What we know:
The structure holds 2 protein chains of 2 kinds.
Chain A: E1 7-17, E2 23-33, E3 37-41, H1 48-55, E4 63-68, E5 71-72, H2 77-83, E6 84-87, H3 99-109, H4 114-127, H5 143-155, E7 161-165, H6 173-188, E8 192-197, H7 200-206, E9 209-214, E10 217-223, H8 224-230, E11 233-241, E12 253-258, E13 261-267, H9 272-281, E14 285-291, H10 295-304, H11 310-316
Parallel strand pairs in A: 3-8, 3-9, 6-7, 7-8
Antiparallel strand pairs in A: 1-2, 1-4, 4-5, 9-10, 11-13, 11-14, 12-13
Helix pairs in contact in A: 3-4, 3-5, 10-11
Chain B: H1 2-23, H2 25-28, H3 30-51, E1 53-54, E2 57-58, H4 59-89, H5 93-97, H6 103-129, H7 140-164, H8 170-184, H9 197-203, H10 207-220, H11 227-251
Antiparallel strand pairs in B: 1-2
Helix pairs in contact in B: 1-6, 3-4, 3-6, 4-6, 4-7, 4-8, 4-10, 6-7, 7-10, 7-11, 10-11
Amino acid sequence: MVIDMQNALDISGLKKVYKGGFQALKGIDLTVKQGDFFALLGPNGAGKSTTIGVITSLVNKTAGQVKVYGHDIDHELEDAKSFIGLVPQEFNFNQFESLMRILVNQAGYYGVERSVAHERAEKYLKQLDLWDKRNDAARMLSGGMKRRLMIARALMHEPKMLILDEPTAGVDIELRRSMWDFLRELNSQGITIILTTHYLEEAEMLCRNIAIIDSGIIVENTDMKSLLAKLDVETIVLDLSIGGAEPKLNDFCYRIIDDHTIEVDIKKSQRINDVFSQLTEQNINVLSLRNKSNRLEELFVSIIGTGASSEKQTQGAQ
Amino acid sequence: MSSARNMIALKSILHKEVHRFMRIWVQTLVPPAITISLYFVIFGELIGSRIGQMGGFDYMSFIVPGLIMMSVITNSYSNVASSFFSAKWQRNVEEMLVAPVPNWVIVAGYVGGGMCRGILVGCIVTLISLLFTEIQVHNIWIIIVTVALTSATFALGGLINAIFAGSFDDISIIPTFILTPLTYLGGVFYSITLLPDFWQGVSQANPIVYMVNAFRYGFLGISDVSLVAAFSVLTGFIITLFVIAMTLITKGIGLRS
Ligand SMILES: Nc1ncnc2c1ncn2[C@@H]1O[C@H](COP(=O)(O)OP(=O)(O)OP(=O)(O)O)[C@@H](O)[C@H]1O
Ligand SMILES: [Mg+2]
């Protein structure tokens, strides 16, 4: 027997033309399964926030269909809305209100009784390490705390689907890790999670499925593993002690950055060992080595092709 | 199920709105009290004593209902105008837009908040006026209904203003250029029967004339206009403004891109 499990999100033929005529979405199809951990990846201005805006009814769509847990936003908007918890890209709470009030009011908009809302607010504020600040005005929080406040707020009505628009932007690595753990925990409880990010590492670490959007078009929609398999080049940066001549590497694509640093592109079929042995033959020592963290750009370039926009190229240039 | 949810949402918005103006009471409740005290001192005590009688009552008694009404009007209006505009500005209006809150609940919540402020200020002003004069009550029900309908009307007006407003300046334009003149010409300080026929006719087009007179009737039992006309005008305004506000929010004017 086949049980047709409803998708958490079904988007088809979605278009958005903003006032002034700019076409931000050019016909998007996207499906997210229940319980998935889904990444929406794309360069600046690709249309990620616009897509999320349409799903959450903050942006009016121009054409297409969006269903949230089977509820079409054109006909059953309120039902659709009650499934979603949104963590927007920009801070959008009342800066003068206390954390507790922000959370309790938000729950109220979803029909959660105040007494229940207070308990939940306490739970999430404690989990997200904001309990001490509960009576402070939101404007007194640090940037990372504000992000966590928005996560707590999105959870107040216990949504089945959590959408996070760049939740870790401007968040330090330690906090980012703890946010990742928190999100994984939510996902393991069955909450569908969709997040946008600029960090491939983040998507790689968390997500099972991924869509890549560029200039309002979905250019890739696959599972994480197959996507990473496409990423067949990695760039490493080597710090060298060079006595004499410039280093030379056969069969490798490399760039000499300065007199003691080179960058080497290593394909899946190649081995880093060969780089080392060639350098040793030239009496050059490798002092240190690191991964050049531009895998996302490489991925974009390999998928979107050489027609990558100038925006992406400047992003790629470090 | 969904009606229970709507009631909780409505209560949340009301709660938030009342808390907002109570938190900043120095900006919201004190200034109208001071302004109105000045009116009482200047118009009532100093000038009023020279004016003598108006409509068969001493001048102070005559202007008290109008002054109460004036503060109800400005406070209902400006409460919603500034609160909703600042929710747009800080984008926390999105908290409501993403939630399953029907548009009528948003309108009712904000209008209810504006009414609370208007009526609270009205009560404060009434208490202050007791320091200056005695207040008689002709018909308490007319007072209550008039003040409720008037504050609802202007709260709706403030909401519409905030929806269109693109900057903080935009929410003071209408009060300055429309509301204040209409109020001053609305028979707060004089009986419109004192005006030449032509200006009496013009005054009939001023909705505030109806509100002030109905309200004054509740206290003194005198009115320049018929009560039926007054309540028809008020009801007409509320329905029209409500429909406009609902249409604007449903279309997402100034709210959704
Ligand atoms: N309100 C608006 N009016 C007009 N154009 C807009 C509006 N909002 C976004 N756009 C345009 O739509 C395009 C997509 O924007 P969007 O915010 O969806 O990008 P994004 O993928 O979220 O980018 P980022 O990673 O920088 O957040 C951009 O070119 C942007 O300039
Ligand atoms: Mg964005």
